Amino acid sequence: MKQPAPVLYAPREPIFPKRVTGTFRRLKWWIMGLTLAIYYLTPWIRWDRGPNLPDQAVLVDMASRRFYFFWIEIWPHEFYFVAGLLIMAGLGLFLFTSALGRVWCGYTCPQTVWTDLFILVERWIEGDRNARVRLHRADWSFRKLRLRLTKWAVWLAIAIATGGAWVFYFTDAPTLLHDLFAFTAHPAAYITIAVLTMTTFVFGGFMREQICIYMCPWPRIQAAMMDPDTITVAYREWRGEPRGKKHEDTKGDCIDCMACVNVCPMGIDIREGQQMECITCALCIDACDDVMNKIGKPRGLIDYLALSDEPAERAGEAPKSNWRHILRPRTLLYTAMWSLIGVGLVYALFIRSDIELTVSPVRNPVYVVQSDGDIRNIYDIRLRNKSGDERQFHLSLISEDILRISLQGRSDLIVRVPADSTVLQRVYVTARPQDPPASRDRTDLRLWVEDITSAARASQDTVFNGKAPQ
Questions:
Q1: CA 137/CA 152 separation, integer angstroms
Q2: Which of 33, 79, 266, 290 has the most CB atoms lying inside 10 A of its own CB?
């Protein structure tokens, strides 16, 4: 008899987390409120940079190719600052995962934060876990339709606000808000808001734990970051087993009340050991501690702990201190690398100048012979003024030989550069026929630019090519 083909897909079973109170739930509320406030309110913070620059504190100005973060301004050629911050973020994630497990996933990941917010709305409208389970299983009725439409409407409002807040980071927020309601904003703004609205609505309202389990790569990478000394959420099996009701003659503290399972947003049972799905949100700790208090047992049956402490705890000995688990070679290495990159970025930020120049020799032709016999080289110099005011830059050169400098279209050596902008200036360097550089293949020189107002200077080395003898 032919065997039926195995089923490779299991339909999703909806998860309805139960409301819980406790230390970690309060911590998650505070973190959720703080992160949402930062995300929604940051584009509206103003920062005065002067009359010629945008006054939005945090702005990714795609048109001008600038990134503004309060008093810091990043230009396109300074992308190494962004790259450094991304590396620091990665190392920070490695550090916290190695020390404390998936605390990023459990507390600050956007998927977790918005899912918590959506569950809060769902609980507020439909009731706690049992009421939501009954509503889910009930046939469609006017009451069920009313509750679902109300919930979805609030979810949609949150999703629209989420998509709208994102686009405010890329242009002046008050101006864009007016343009959006006047239907005069760029189509890219409406498209971005629509896409982010859809993804927020679906990811936070319907897919929830599936994003963490199937779409996010971090659960599969975390194993390389963790070891037995990592402090993570775990069940003290040696204390809780065998399970049984309170009135039963059992040695274990676990009464099999399922409170830890009912509050879990991932729908797993932490008593089954470490699992890829666990985001270490610690809500099961709050639920279990509450039950232990009620039955007069010590708290901590489910707790943040290191698996390496199991033998000592089984023998009734005290576990190692948390600091001994956290301060170990792996975490110290991550901390050192993170700190070195951070110090390097801060140092590079503070030593950078408000003026810069980039010299590009024009090599077609390499040199030009003038009617009077002079040898001329041509250079395109890009002058950057990073300050908030217009500046006058004076150009000059230094060389061991006699060379003369002049500017195209100007009688002097002064170039006016507007605030926070770049000017491309063509420069001529000339050698008289009797001077050595005219007959030498290569002569080193240094081009200087000086800010007349602040006396700040910048330079770049380049070469002068003469008419070498054949």
A1: 18
A2: 266
